[in-house]
């Protein structure tokens, strides 16, 4: 069984720029454009769908993504222009944090409130 999260977005062009220009996703369906009501994205073994359909009323989904090195990944995203200022009072949005539950994590929240939690086990 495979799960593919669906994120509701207000501005498809901005969402595509965020996920493909800063994060490591790529558009996977050749026919998808910024005018498409649903866009498929992928990165390695991860898939994600973006939608502007009005019938999808939910905003603010959360997805955990397990990675081998959160520090290197965060630095890469910052070098590509990741803006952390919108969540200035949230340490996990400012950079990787060692959590009490045994994970090192950082969060990236898009303009529509969808959050990707990049996680690494602490050994």
From TrEMBL:
All copies of domain VOC, residue ranges: 1-121
Domain of life of the source: Bacteria
InterPro entries: Glyas_Bleomycin-R_OHBP_Dase, Glyas_Fos-R_dOase_dom, VOC_core
One Pfam match: Glyoxalase
Protein name listed in UniProt: VOC domain-containing protein
Species whose genome carries this gene: Hufsiella ginkgonis
Taxonomic placement: Bacteria, Pseudomonadati, Bacteroidota, Sphingobacteriia, Sphingobacteriales
């Amino acid at each position: 069984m495979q799960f593919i999260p669906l994120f509701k977005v207000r501005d498809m062009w901005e969402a595509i720029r965020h996920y493909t220009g800063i994060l490591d996703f790529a558009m996977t369906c050749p026919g998808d454009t910024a005018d498409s009501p649903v866009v498929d994205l992928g990165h390695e073994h991860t898939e994600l769908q973006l939608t502007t359909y009005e019938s999808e009323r939910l905003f603010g989904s959360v997805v955990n993504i397990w990675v081998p090195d959160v520090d290197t990944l965060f630095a890469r995203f910052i070098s590509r222009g990741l803006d952390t200022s919108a969540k200035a009072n949230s340490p996990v949005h400012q950079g990787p944090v060692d959590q009490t539950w045994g994970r090192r994590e950082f969060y990236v929240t898009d303009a529509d409130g969808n959050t990707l939690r990049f996680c690494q086990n602490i050994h």
